[in-house]
Amino acid sequence: MTAPEVRPWERQDGETELEYEAFKGYVYQRPPRRLAHSSVKHGAAQLSELYNRWHWPERCLAYDRHVQRIRDDEREALLRQDAKERMAKIVGVLETTGEIISREAAKLLRDSLEAEASGLLKPADLNKLMNTWITMQRLIHGESTENVSIEDASLKNLSVEELLEFQRLRAKLAGDDDGDGQGDPH
Prior knowledge:
By secondary structure, the protein is mainly alpha-helical. Helix content is 61%, strand content 0%.
């Protein structure tokens, strides 16, 4: 089993505790860092010598990058949590609205059956109600609420035979069993 690698801002092999304390006094300062503020136990000449011998600028850069990565990760985690909480609220509202729509539709159906009368709800209103409910269900499940058609393909590059095959396939998709584009003659 190998010993874990010593990170640059940690105490280095051969660095005394007193030297490391001086480094910590320097690295924990806010930039721009000042040697004069890093240790009360060392003079300016000693600090300058430690600064060069123990490569303080490189170690500080590594430390600053490490701290920035931690801050970035924490910020991203907070943003993800905020997005999850907002989405949960939206889903809650959509589910509640869906329940209301469902309950109101059930009342209308019950009233219509009991009264044996039609016209309690206009077809256009029923259509709007159903479209709203379907849209909400799609939103809750993270699905698209728009019908998107892909019309990017350029047909001008197809041969006559390919165009006929394309027409036959479209007719088949539309429910024309013969695939001749003419529909059912009966």
